[in-house]
Amino acid sequence: MRGIHCFVLALLALQHVSCNKGSSSNDQPTTPPVFQLNSTSLDGKAPGTENYNVPFSPVIRLNFNGKVDKGTVAAAVHLTSESGAVAYTASYANGDSSLVIQPASPLSSIVRHDFSISTSLKATTGASLMSGTNFTFVTKIDSIAKFPQLTEDELLTKVQQQTFKYFWDFGHPVSGLARERNSSGDVVTSGGSGFGIMAIVAGIHRGFVTRAQGLARMQIIVRFLKDQAQTFKGAYPHWLNGATGVVVPFSANDNGADLVETSYLMQGLITARQYFNGADASETSLRSDINTIWNRVEWSWFTKGGEQVLYWHWSPSVNWVMNVQIKGWNEALITYVMAASSTTYPITKAVYDNGWASNGGMRNGAAYYGITLPLGPAFGGPLFFSHYSFLGINPKSLTDAYANYEMQNQNHALINYNYCKTNPKGYFGYSDSVWGLTASDIKGGYTASSPTNDVGVIAPTAALSSFPYTPTESMKTLKFFYYTLGDKIWKEYGFIDAFSLKEPWFANSFLAIDQGPIIIMIENYRSGLLWNLFMSAPEVKTGMRALGFQSPNL
Question: Residue ranges of the Glycoamylase-like domain (predicted)?
Answer without folding.
Answer: 325-537
